[in-house]
Amino acid sequence: MATGATRISGQFSVADLARYLSQNLGRTVLDRTGLVGAFQFKLEWNPEAESIFTAIQEQIGLRLESTRGSVDVLVIDRAERPMEN
Question: What H or E segment, with its residue span, contains residue 19?
């Protein structure tokens, strides 16, 4: 594997793949495939040479679409220590 390349492999659901991509790409990825169950995935790409969008479509057969929409977000305005009884 080339320097700077990234590899994802294993058996997991498409929803798990979407969560992984969300955490590691810094963007929200939603699973809208409707596929259930675990699948064997193997994905290798070099972010310096190729787009993750292209790699996923060519190697796994899934398509990532960049869209805008609303996403639920939890905002914590303030936190306080609990009071002693």
Answer: helix 14-25
One DSSP character per residue, 21-68 reads: HHHHHSS-----S---S-EEEEEEE-TTTS-HHHHHHHHT--------
pTM of the full predicted structure?
0.69
Name the percent of the chain lying above pLDDT 70: 96
36-70 pLDDT, tens digit each: 999 999 999 888 888 888 999 999 999 988 888 88
Where b means 16+ CB within 10 Å and e means fewer, 66-85 reads eeeeeeeeeeeeeeeeeeee
